[in-house]
């Protein structure tokens, strides 16, 4: 199960794996283009010992195998590099010459192979030739005992110097696939680690566990929702619209036997889509024949009027301070039994205003104007407005955005609702991933309605626009501000 969770985490973050692979290929490609080609020249030495000095062939073989390991270090030593640089002007320092030399012992042999890598082919060959000469001399000098002229070890050049005509670096055919493989492995590791450290709610099970409440719906993410947030016209036939209709159906079976007429729609954090959800849920309920009233009670960042295409200058706050009657500011919308009460002017103290006796009385009044009242509220973890309103409603619907809200934030939101005495109807996972199979099945079974819902042109309601004339001028604005402050006390 643990391996399956890791695999699922990698699959959910496939974009991270793809980005890492593309980045690795891009770096490797750029390095390949920018790098100067380097060429290798190889020379091979054979190490042997004369008959005299070592009588036993087996012991002689062991002696030479131990010796050749030291010769590898000698080939890469400063002493040999200095001798090569001093013998001829290569335009290199001792350290630069040493950095170009590598050496190794061929396995199970007494052959030592030295390789010189340089961006200049001619210099690579000349360096290898000079190394072969100086190395033989150096070994003879070191191995010859004092007072004698014969060394127990003899080194001979048996192959080379031999230049490889193909550059050893860069090699696009080898380097690019290797970079892609390393990027793939790095991406998988990053995605798995991201999955381990990611505490956001990503699926239905995670939301249920965090909220400790039933899951009433799952609304898929659609790019078109950015420009067409409402489920009308073409969007009325989308999987998102069908998911909202399923949510409407599930709300009918919540807490059977208990009246749920006023529903607060809220979320833990901002930008989770609660206002869009409130608007679309109201439209879906009205499509089913209920008389619906949508109230924008988010008095800090109201969006309902903007989404519904209505005038927001006069609304809830004007009713609460007693400046207008609620019947005068309700704006009908579309060809369905749906009315909207915008937020009105933004008050300086929304929490007190929403928790006032005037708000409780207004909600009671609104029940007589509609079968279902949907109230859009502020996020729960940011301010107390949402909990204050939810406590006065018959139930609260918690909207959670997939991949944005953490489990701890969802838990804090539900705790805030319960602490305020609000009744939680359930949770909705918003902007969830839609499996391709589900999208295909929906498209195959989709039937377009004969008469799509069309919104009413903003500003056509005479009742809604009349009170707006009272708000003109500085004196009227100051009067309204004083009334808002008094109403919240």
From TrEMBL:
Protein name: non-specific protein-tyrosine kinase
Top EC class, one word: transferase
Localisation per UniProt entry: Cell membrane
Organism, as annotated: Micromonospora pattaloongensis
Region listing for Disordered, in residue ranges: 452-489
Keyword hit for Amino-acid biosynthesis: no
Superkingdom, natural source: Bacteria
Keyword annotations: ATP-binding, Cell membrane, Kinase, Membrane, Nucleotide-binding, Transferase, Transmembrane, Transmembrane helix, Tyrosine-protein kinase
Family the UniProt entry places it in: Belongs to the CpsD/CapB family. Belongs to the CpsC/CapA family.
Major localization class: membrane
Topology in membrane: Multi-pass membrane protein
Domain Polysaccharide chain length determinant N-terminal: 7-86
Feature: compositional bias, Basic residues: 479-489
């Amino acid at each position: 199960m643990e391996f399956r969770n890791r695999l699922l985490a990698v699959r959910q973050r496939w974009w991270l794996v793809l980005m890492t692979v593309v980045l690795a290929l891009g770096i490797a490609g750029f390095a390949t283009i920018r790098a100067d080609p380097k060429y290798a020249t190889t020379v091979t030495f054979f190490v042997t010992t004369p008959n005299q000095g070592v009588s036993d062939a087996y012991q002689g073989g062991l002696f030479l195998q131990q010796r050749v390991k030291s010769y590898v270090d000698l080939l890469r030593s400063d002493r040999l590099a200095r001798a090569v640089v001093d013998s001829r002007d290569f335009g290199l320092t001792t350290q630069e010459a040493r950095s170009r030399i590598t050496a190794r012992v061929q396995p199970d042999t007494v052959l030592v192979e030295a390789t010189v890598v340089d961006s200049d082919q001619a210099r690579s060959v000349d360096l290898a030739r000079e190394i072969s000469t100086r190395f033989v001399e150096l070994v003879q000098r070191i191995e010859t005992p004092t007072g004698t002229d014969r060394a127990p070890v003899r080194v001979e050049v048996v192959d080379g110097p031999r230049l490889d005509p193909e550059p050893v670096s860069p090699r696009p055919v080898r380097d690019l696939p290797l970079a892609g493989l390393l990027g793939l492995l790095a991406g998988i590791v990053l995605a798995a680690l991201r999955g381990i450290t990611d505490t956001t709610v990503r699926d239905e099970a995670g939301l249920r566990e965090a909220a400790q409440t039933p899951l009433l719906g799952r609304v898929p993410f659609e790019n078109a929702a950015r420009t067409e947030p409402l489920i009308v016209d073409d969007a009325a036939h989308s999987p998102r619209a069908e998911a909202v209709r399923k949510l409407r159906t599930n709300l009918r079976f919540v807490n059977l036997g208990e009246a749920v007429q006023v529903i607060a729609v809220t979320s833990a954090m901002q930008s989770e889509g609660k206002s869009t959800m409130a608007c679309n849920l109201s439209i879906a309920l009205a499509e089913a024949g209920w008389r619906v009233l949508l109230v924008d009670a988010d008095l800090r960042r109201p969006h309902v009027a903007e989404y519904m295409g209505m005038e927001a200058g006069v609304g809830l706050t004007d009713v609460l301070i007693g400046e207008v009657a609620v019947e005068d500011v309700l704006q009908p919308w579309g060809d369905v039994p749906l009315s909207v009460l915008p937020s009105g002017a933004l008050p300086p103290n929304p929490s007190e205003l929403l928790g006032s006796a005037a708000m409780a009385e207004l909600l009671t009044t609104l029940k007589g104007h509609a079968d279902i009242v949907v109230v859009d509220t502020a996020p729960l973890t940011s301010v107390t407005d949402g909990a204050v309103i939810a406590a006065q409603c018959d139930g609260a619907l918690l909207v959670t955005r997939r991949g944005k809200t953490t489990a701890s934030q969802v838990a804090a939101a539900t705790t805030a609702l319960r602490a305020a005495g609000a009744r939680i109807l359930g949770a909705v996972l918003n902007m969830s991933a839609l499996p391709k199979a589900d999208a295909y099945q929906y498209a195959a079974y989709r039937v377009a309605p004969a008469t799509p819902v069309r919104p009413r042109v903003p500003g056509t309601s005479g009742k809604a626009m009349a009170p707006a004339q009272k708000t003109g001028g500085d004196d009227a604005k100051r009067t309204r501000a004083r009334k808002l402050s008094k109403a919240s006390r």
